[in-house]
Design brief:
By secondary structure, the chain is of the alpha+beta class. Helix content is about 25%, strand content about 25%. It is built from 3 helices and 7 strands, in the order E-E-E-E-E-E-E-H-H-H. The chain has helices spanning about 85-100, 105-110, 120-130, and strands at about 1-10, 15-25, 35-40, 50-55, 60, 70-75, 80. Strands 3-1-2-4-5 form a 5-stranded antiparallel beta sheet, with no helix packed on it. The longest helix is centred in the middle third of the chain and has 17 residues, at about 85-100.
Length: about 160
Amino acid sequence: MSKAMVLLGDGCKNGRFFNVMRFKISSQDIDEDDSWRSIETPLGFELSGPLIYDVANNKIIKRPEKKDSAEVFDLETCSWVMSAIAQWEKVRGLRDELMTATDWRVTRAMEAGQPLAAEWVAYRQALRDVTQQPDPFAIVWPVAPDKQSTEAPTEVLN
């Protein structure tokens, strides 16, 4: 075992995991102070790249690799999670796709000079309203009306 000193950065709320800001290696005991913490590291452990200090086990672990550029590192779970901003972008993208998939009904109703069926008006409004929900990770999506019972008009009725 060799000795290392780590300078800790941000930590999780429960105080278990901390980002390692800097480190130094020594073969002898080093006195700790408020900002540096002494730990033992296995011989050959590579202290490079993004590291995390695990207080409960008094050891340094490598931060897992990011899978998506929109992810942020969550010290509470010691894992990468999608940021709320990126998740809202995904929600808006899906909402826009669902709106686009119903645009033809609006066009057909307008061309026929008739109103769009009330069920489709309500569905499209519910799609617009999904961004008013508080949690982008728990969106309750509206269900599209039955396609057969609420078809947009295909001809002008006199």
